[in-house]
Amino acid sequence: MKNIKKIIKVLYLLLLFTLVAESVASASDLETLSISSTDINDVGEILIPIPFMGDYKIVIKLKTVTNAKLPLRYDVNKRVLSPGERVTITLTPSDGKMNVKVSTIVKVYDQDGNILYDYEFPPVEIPQFDIPAEFSYKIPLPLLPLESVGIPAELGIILNLKYSVHPSIELYMQGLSPKRYKLLLTTLGSETITVTKTNQLGAVVTIKRWSLNSYSTVKPSIGVTVSGVPTPLKYDLQSVTFPIAQQSQVVNKELVVLKTPINIKLNDIGVAHVGDRILITGKVTPAGSGIRIKIMVKHEAGVWKTLNIVSTDYAGSFSTVWIPSEPGRYMIKAIHEGSRFTVESESNIITASILEVKKPTQLVQTPTPQQPKGIFPIPFRTPGFEIITGVLAGIVALIILRKISKQK
User: Is the entire prediction scored with pTM above 0.85?
Assistant: First the structure.
């Protein structure tokens, strides 16, 4: 029973991991671009020579309304890139769709410029098609039904449209060379470009804009469609090419961020003393300003502690001041915890020997040894010594003389 529970738990975890992995993958490599445009295109004047009726002129004006969506899958062959290395970016259009609605105005003039026919046909919506694509489509435009006069036929125009739709994508690549790249999507297959990393830290690939490069060749045919006759009696006119949609749309959508590995080097310190102001210096390569560096210190009998967090200058250099309070052997290192454009990195470990401060030498006075009683040491002769001695001798002599006089 316990084994069954374990198996169920493992299967549940595997299923959960699969669902999470699929959701992350689908969200990270698919971008949907949308563009819509309205263009009015005048095909121009087309002459229809009919000898027995003179030269008649037909003017066909087309108004197209387009709407397109292009899901785009993208990928890069590496996401950590050092200066000078090359990276390949792959773009794959996936299930792109386009809708086109065509409105047609037909005018017929005689040789004197009189309008014989003027009619705007209801819009015709072409069935949704894939892009990039090339395909053909026919739009019948009935001009004059002849059933009213007893003839089972209809005079009309057939527009033979041949579409060519190739979206283009303009990429802006900060930190890569070339900086700009325009990619024309001609098929549903993948398109790849290879670019080189510059000295700048990190890189960002952005879709700046995308455009619909859509064209159509129109070949009108005028003729009579007779009931029961499979092939209409028609006269093909000259072909005219006109743009359906050439509008572009600014996207400014970030596709991928590439990171740059960095190297951190600390300079040696050597020997110092407790209380000294010690300058710890280092350098990051490739150079870049604003890279956050955590400087850590560890006493031989302790644990790693953060001394300071500093940022690099434009040359990639950094520094901080350390004032040790205890003697001993220390280890010092610098750590970068990673950023939007850089990966995590750790420097070399340097050592520093911190010595105790030497105390200044002091003069020690030796006490004067005691003299035996009755013995008076003769002091060191100083100026006036003879005068003092003479006065004392005189006093002693007077005392002695008084004692002698009293005895008599």
Answer: no
